[in-house]
Design a protein that fits this description.
CATH class: Alpha Beta
CATH superfamily: Alpha/Beta hydrolase fold, catalytic domain
Strand content: 15-25%
Radius of gyration: 20 Å
Order of helices and strands: HHEEEHEEHHEHEHHEHHEEHHEHEHH
Amino acid sequence: MSDLYRSALQARIAKLPPMPPSEEDEELAEAGDSIGDLPTGMGPPAMPSHTPRSQRRQRTPNAAFTPISAASFFEQATQVAVPASGLDVRVYYTPPKFEDGTVLVCHHGAGYSGLSFACFAKEVTEMSKGECGVLSLDCRGHGKTARTDAPPSAEEDLSIDTLTNDFVNLLQAIFPDVAASPSLLASYLCTFLIGHSLGGSISVRACPILQERKYRITGVAVLDVVEEFTLEALPVMHSLLNARPEGFDSVEEAIEWHVKTNAIRNPNSARVSIPAIVTPAPPDAPPSTPAYVWRTPLRSTAPYWTSWFTGLSGKFLAARTARLLVLAGTERLDRELMIGQMQGKFQLIVVSNVGHMVHEDDPTRLAEIMVEFWRRNERVVVGVKKVGEL
């Protein structure tokens, strides 16, 4: 990596602060933003009502579900000021080791956080031998991202246009604008956009905007979301949210619940990502409130659900870059995607033995898929067409 590029990055992203091996308190904060299944997954079974704090019997937290620090998965973690969006955005980043490397930019789904890509990020950097870096963020209203233009109690605008603009503004804040630093960006940086569920919709919409601003987009990958079937599932979302506990007695209990209900099937990933999705209950909360509650109130986002996914299939197929759709299990394609697949407009891979959180359930397999897709489309041999090129 050139000294010029390194100095430019260091000016924008600070080094990850030291984290002691047993840093439980910091990890509780680090992992704060994954909540429940929104798009295609039907979520865990219904849970009984939570017992009031005054009546429940305290139990020792299960050590098998102790939180794991994010420090061993990303090289850097910092807050990035994004004045254009009025945000202070939490970013996790492992840069590529080479000037001609590629940055995989990962956007989580509704209610989750950048740490849902932690295990995946480590696998990618190891498999690509440092040619690929990984950047993952906490979007507006999630994790450690905070507003700078309004008090924390202000209502969040989680419309798809606002979230897409936030994403674009963040990348411009971190990486130099092409017009300002063509020698830096045009010769070095390639970005590969990866989005899970809502994050997939945001990535697809951000792709043409970034390309208009001369960013090189190697490809766009959407994880486990299909427009038609997601929209059909939205009416039952309130029932699924009702099936979740109001909260938990400890962070370990939150991790254990996600693992035992198969909301996340990989305990190690859950131990990294789940602590971020809960937060201590406010001091003035009613006695019946659990010790830890959900950080992001998904129910309040209901007015945005339909707009998040409407038009996703068409925009995905229209993206002027290589396209990849990764689905869990045997999910079906809608008519528009089925036609697109028959025309060879995108690559489809179905991963077995995973749930909606495909990137957490089997990060190794997903990393293999992404690295192979990247090699095919970024390290493409002259004369060989990229995925989606006719």
